[in-house]
Each structure stands twice: as structure tokens, then as C-alpha cells.
Write a structure and sequence with these properties.
The complex is a heterodimer of chains A (166) and B (275). Helices cover 28% and strands 24% of the residues of chain A. With 166 residues, chain A is of the alpha+beta class. Chain A is flat and about 75 Å long. Chain B is built from nine helices and no strands.
Chain lengths: 166, 275
């Protein structure tokens, strides 16, 4: 009885110690565990020049322009700040205006981010295309917003548009 | 350290307790009797033998239903198209991989504290099943990531912590079998399983704590699940099917392990008689 009780207490103490040690390590490593920085993070703490890092956010609606060859220019936004990006290469299927994106590359002296790799970031919304169409027609929602009622993050079609409702 | 002395001592103290302290001891023994009822290998064999066919049949039925529903009859996604169907395998296997590790950790804790022989077996038999579910989760996720993200693999917090889960399972299997004395192997495995349990909250909350390429949780959001019901229902059916499949596999493996132990004991007894 007492031996079992003692083993239980030892186990609980070990779990407590291990748990707090892990929590401390993870808090200390916080900045190194993020996969990407947002444009606001970059504005707050600019990275050293020529350092390779990732930037993530939404592709600003209406900002994608394809230049000569396979060069693409677009702006990444997190609602507060935007960052211009150029990229040469193949874009993933899910790369769309208003969708999430993570680009890896270096920040040039002119403030343009030169991406060497662009990954699409899917949001947590899943729905059939007809439902998305219906929502879009009703003007409640556009791709890139969380779901009806979510905060609009981009430019034109975010807010309710009663006129376009059919 | 107190290993050889423990079983008889624990047994003796357990039986002596009610004689010493009447009211408190009686309550404690009542609780213990209940626990021991299911920890008794003979009773477990009988009970699981009755349950197993039903669980296995339900798992097969739901798996067939969920696969047909998810892969053929559910709608495509507005962004991902048909690729969304990978989710019906990927997400349930990830859930079960984590549920399996929780089972393993709880069984390991009760094996360390109460020395239930059945708890040791459950923990050990969990590891290969969990490793398989984790491997399925990693492979399907990778196949989904290539067309959707544009890459098979990235080292973000979610993917890395699930890979760590896979290595924990493999490490547990290796560690348990690395000792000449099986009891020491089981004990080392139990400690590893408990230490590795820190990884579970990290997996779950990695997408909230840090920015990751992996999308955040859709189903367990309290406000409103971000999944349309036409996609959510087949996913839930598959989750239930995978859970039942896990239960059936675990019961089967633990039963086999008990029989193997008995066969070994019989063989050892026969060898002792001959010698």
C-alpha cells in the first residue's frame, strides 16, 4: 500500500518536473520553432540582411502579376503590413489570391523579398464547391476568409455586399 | 531495486490491510478488487473473447461504410478538389496514433505504480499498432502535401513532432527487446513511454503555439467546426472505424501475448520436470 502510494507520488513528481522543464525549453526556443514570420514580425524586428528565412501570410487580392518568363510578383499581407515578393519558378496548385502562402528567401536591400521557394498554406476550412459558390453569390464570404462572419483580411469583396446578392 | 521482493510483499500487504485498519482499508480493498477484476489475465481473456468479434465486426462495417462514403460519395472540396479525400485516412490515423500513445502512457503508469502484469502487456502491444497508424498518417500527409503545399515534407512544428511520435514508438519497441531480463525491458519501456507523453500536447497544440505550414484544427474548434457537414460526417465515421479497429487490434495482440506467456511458462515447467 504505502509502497504503491510512494511510487505514485514519485511518478507524479517526475511528470511535474519533466512537464515544467519541457515548458521552459519550449518557451525559450519560441522564436526558433516558428516556421515563418509574418510581415508585421518583420517590420518589428527586421532580420539581418542576406539571412535566409520564411515569410507567411495571405496573397493580397489583386496583387499577383506575372512578368516575363516564369517570374511572379505578388504581395504577402497579414492584414496590418504587406511585403512585396518576387519568385521565379513553379507555384503550387493552391497558390491563389486571398489564400495563405509561405515563401522562403532573402530580403533584398530594396525591401523586396526574393523567394527561392513558395509553398501554399491551406486554411482549416473544408466545404463542397457548391456551398462555396452559394456563399460567394450571397456575398457573405470570399476565399481566404475563415468562414461566414470571419474578419475580412483583404481588399475588395470582404465586407457585406448587399447589392450583389442575387 | 525492490523488484524481486515486490510481488509477494504487495500481495501480502494487500490482504493484510483490512485486518489492520477497518473502515478505510475496506474501502481501499473494494476499489482494488474492482481494478484487479480487469487486470486478471484469465478474466480478461474471457471478457475480451466475448467482446472481440463484435468490435471487429463493427470496425469492418464502419470502415467499409466510411471508405465508400469518403472516397466515392462525399463532395470534393472547393479548394483542394478530390485531394481532400486523403483526409479521411490521414486525420483518423493521426487521432488514433495519439490515442494509442495515450493508452500506452496510461498503461505504463499503472504498470510502474501498481505492477499490473496486464498493464505491461497492453503498453508493449500498443507500440507496433501506434507505429503503423503514425506511419499511415505521415505517408498520407506527405502525399497530400505534394500537390497542395508544393512539398512532401517541411520541418515545421506539427510535422516534426509527429515524426518524433513515430520514433518514440520505434524506440519503445527496440528498448523493450533490448534487455536479457524481460522485466527490466518492460520497465525501461514504461519509463520511455511516460517521458514521451510530453510530446502529445506538443503535437496537439503545435499549430496554435507556433506558426506552422500545417493548418490549424478544424473539427475540435469550440466556436464552429470549419468543416461542412457533408465532409465532416464521413470523417467522423472513419474516426470511429479507426478507433474500433485499434481496439480490436489491441485486444487481439494482448490476448496473443497472454497465450504466448502461458506457452512459455508451460514449456519452462516441462523443461524443469525433464531436468
Amino acid at each position: 500500500m504505502t509502497r504503491k502510494r510512494r511510487r505514485l507520488w514519485i511518478l507524479l513528481l517526475c511528470a511535474l518536473g519533466l512537464g515544467s522543464a519541457t515548458a521552459l525549453v519550449l518557451t525559450a526556443l519560441d522564436d526558433h520553432l516558428v516556421f515563418f514570420f509574418s510581415p508585421s514580425d518583420l517590420a518589428e524586428r527586421p532580420p539581418p540582411p542576406e539571412r535566409l528565412f520564411r515569410v507567411g501570410g495571405l496573397v493580397e487580392t489583386g496583387s499577383v502579376e506575372r512578368a516575363e518568363g516564369s517570374t511572379v510578383r505578388f504581395r504577402v499581407t497579414d492584414g496590418a503590413k504587406t511585403l512585396p515578393v518576387t519568385f521565379q519558378g513553379l507555384l503550387p496548385d493552391l497558390f491563389r489570391e486571398g489564400q495563405g502562402v509561405v515563401a522562403q528567401g532573402r530580403l533584398g536591400p530594396d525591401g523586396v523579398f526574393r523567394a527561392t521557394e513558395v509553398l501554399a498554406r491551406h486554411d482549416e476550412t473544408y466545404m463542397p464547391p457548391e456551398v462555396a459558390d452559394a456563399l460567394r453569390r450571397a456575398g457573405h464570404w470570399k476565399p481566404g476568409d475563415p468562414l461566414p462572419g470571419g474578419a475580412p483580411s483583404g481588399t475588395p469583396a470582404g465586407a457585406p455586399r448587399p447589392a450583389s446578392g442575387s | 531495486m525492490d523488484r524481486p521482493a515486490t510481488p509477494p510483499a504487495a500481495l501480502a500487504s494487500g490482504q493484510a490491510a483490512p485486518a489492520h485498519a477497518a473502515p478505510e482499508g475496506a474501502r481501499a480493498t473494494a476499489g482494488r478488487v474492482n481494478l484487479h477484476r480487469f487486470a486478471n489475465p484469465g478474466r480478461f481473456l474471457r471478457l475480451s473473447g466475448q467482446l472481440l468479434p463484435w468490435i471487429a465486426a463493427a470496425a469492418a462495417l464502419l470502415l467499409g461504410l466510411g471508405l465508400a462514403w469518403g472516397l466515392a460519395f462525399s463532395p470534393a472540396d472547393y479548394q483542394q478538389g478530390e485531394t481532400v479525400r486523403i483526409m479521411y485516412i490521414h486525420v483518423p490515423s493521426a487521432w488514433v496514433a495519439m490515442a494509442c500513445y495515450s493508452t500506452m502512457a496510461i498503461a505504463s503508469a499503472s504498470a510502474l505504480v501498481w505492477r499490473h502484469p496486464l498493464a505491461d502487456l497492453v503498453a508493449i502491444e500498443c507500440a507496433p499498432i501506434g507505429a503503423c497508424f503514425t506511419a499511415v498518417c505521415l505517408v498520407t500527409g506527405s502525399l497530400w502535401g505534394r500537390p497542395m503545399w508544393g512539398t512532401y515534407w517541411v520541418w515545421d512544428a506539427r510535422l516534426t513532432s509527429v515524426l518524433l511520435l513515430f520514433f518514440l514508438y520505434l524506440g519503445h519497441i527496440a528498448l523493450v527487446n533490448a534487455f536479457d531480463d524481460p522485466a527490466r525491458g518492460r520497465r525501461a519501456g514504461a519509463i520511455l513511454a511516460l517521458v514521451g507523453a510530453v510530446n502529445l500536447p506538443i503535437i496537439k497544440f503545435s499549430v496554435d503555439w507556433w506558426s506552422t505550414l500545417h493548418q490549424p484544427a478544424s473539427v475540435s474548434r469550440l466556436a464552429a467546426p470549419a468543416i461542412h457537414p457533408d465532409i465532416l460526417w464521413p470523417l467522423l465515421v472513419m474516426a470511429l472505424a479507426f478507433t474500433l479497429l485499434f481496439a480490436a487490434l489491441l485486444l487481439l495482440r494482448v490476448r496473443a501475448a497472454i497465450y504466448a506467456q502461458r506457452a512459455r511458462a508451460l514449456m519452462a515447467a516441462r523443461a524443469a520436470v525433464r531436468a
